[in-house]
Write a structure and sequence with these properties.
Blueprint lengths: L8 H13 L3 H8 L3 H8 L7 H11 L3 H17 L15 H6 L1
Length: 103
């Protein structure tokens, strides 16, 4: 089953946390003890949520680190699936009927 365009974690940070609370990127970065540039890159979709950033987001925003890593992984997987020809992999085994049925 193909995923539909999931939001980048930065969209979630901005749309669900910063904008509604009227918190600037600068204020949030200071609270998270990271640079404004780092948070700005994430919020603008040019940076990634790493495990360390996920923990910082968890503490600062009250959500789980796992959820932030999950958002990033979902987005990353969707991005890769948009250009499967760019991933040069040779199958080691023929697909089984169960694998074919689930895709």
């Amino acid at each position: 089953m193909k995923m539909h365009n999931p939001p980048h974690p930065g969209e979630i940070i901005k749309g669900l946390w910063l904008d509604p609370a009227d918190v600037s990127i600068t204020e949030a970065a200071q609270a998270m003890a990271i640079s404004r540039k780092t948070l700005s890159k994430i919020v603008n979709g040019r940076g990634r949520v790493t495990p360390e950033i996920a923990v910082r987001l968890s503490v600062a925003l009250g959500s789980s680190a796992e959820s932030w890593l999950g958002h990033q992984a979902t987005y990353d997987l969707w991005e890769l699936e948009q250009h499967p020809d760019n991933v040069r992999i040779v199958p080691l085994f023929a697909p089984t009927s169960a694998a074919v049925a689930s895709s």
